[in-house]
Amino acid sequence: MSTQWQRYADEHARTIDTMSAVLLFAAFLFGSEITMPSAEQPDETLPTIAFGTVACVALLLWQRTRPRTATALTAVCVAGGSALGHLLTPLLLAPLMLALYRLGSLTRRRTVRRWYAASLTLVMLSALFLDPVPHPWAMKIVSPAAWLLLPVTLGSAVRLSRAYLTAVQQRAEFAERRREEEALHRVTEERVRIARELHDVVAHHLALANAQAGTAAHLARSHPQQVAGILTDLAGTTSSALRELKATVGLLRQAGDADAPLAPAPGLGRLPELTEACASAGLEVEVLAEGEARPLSPGVDLTAYRIVQEALTNVTKHAGARAARVRLRYGRDHVTLTVTDDGPAHACPPGAGGPGFGLIGMRERALSMGGALHAGHRPEGGFEVTTRLPLYPDPAP
């Protein structure tokens, strides 16, 4: 009910102000007729009407836009009515009470206190020194102080309530923006992750397939007996590419999809398959392990495999090397992967010849697990990629 009334008051503010001004004018005139039983009624009627008119017109024009001006004029009019000998009743104080209420609901607390003190002082001084009727001192001091304090308190309470509702609304809007930003951030991260997976799968297998097809074409005339084995390896490479591509694209499926792939993510346990595929493309890969082998978390295992896969893919495509070496060094709380090749000293770096994302993707994978990656040419020739990954990474690096 209060919400509907507040909405109506906001939509018909001018009508409410006009009705309030008329009612307050009538209350001012009626209050001027109230007096003590033993006191005489003042005879000045026109000045009383003039004071009431000025006070109500000031409220009608400026109570919402210039509350200080409305408060000053109504205080002067009430003090003038007291100087004429009228008793300071709540009806006579009503215009000033409304002005103080508006002031309290629209301005700061310090401003309201100052204007309340100034208005009360003006009214009390007028009642004490200019009132021709000997009214009791309590009606000149206590009564106006109490009645004028009421609208100040109510106005301040309304202002604080509005400020609280505004703060709550702003916090809700901020929380909504944060949720939207977080959702967008998560979507972006997921897109980057899927793009990285697609790049690793497609780039590796296509590079191997291209190398195997080129080798088969080269040996078709001179060594035709070897072509059948290479073509068999080529079929296995494309089949493996299709399986991994299906598994990666399956990340985009809805939960509960019956066609979603259930194969586990690749890890370092599949390095023999990777080296065999590279051998069929003409690149001999040697895998060395140092230290006691430690179990890796699924994320680190997948990251390590993808980095080795991408490094060997870059060697196959760009290095012009015939052999590569993969070294796994297990430490107490980390594992270090090093991939080197025997290419020429100034071979093109991985990703040359186009806007490749090989090194960028490997570095992003390492950083996502809390590790680090370094890549560069070796002085004795070839290229080296070194990755240090924690065995048990921070879940939120």
Question: Could you walk me through the main structural features you see in this protein, from its secondary elements to its overall organization?
Answer:
Helix content is 64%, strand content 9%. It is built from twelve helices and five strands. Strands 1-2-3-5-4 form a five-stranded mixed β-sheet, covered by helices on one side.
Tally of separate domains: 2
Strand order of the largest sheet: 1-2-3-5-4
CATH architecture of the largest domain: 2-Layer Sandwich
Helical content stands at 55-70%
Instruction: Note poorly predicted spans.
Output: 349-355
| Terminal Cα span | 53 Å
Number of helices: 12
Reported for the largest beta sheet, the result is: 5 strands, mixed
Gist of the model:
The protein is an alpha+beta fold. Helix content is 64%, strand content 9%.
Give the helix/strand layout.
Layout: H1 2-11, H2 13-32, H3 46-62, H4 67-83, H5 90-106, H6 109-129, H7 137-140, H8 142-222, H9 224-249, H10 271-280, E1 284-290, H11 298-319, E2 323-330, E3 334-341, H12 358-368, E4 372-377, E5 383-390
Parallel strand pairs: 1-2
Antiparallel strand pairs: 2-3, 3-5, 4-5
Key structural traits:
single chain, 397 residues, 2 domains, Heat Shock Protein 90, 5 strands, alpha+beta, 5-stranded mixed sheet
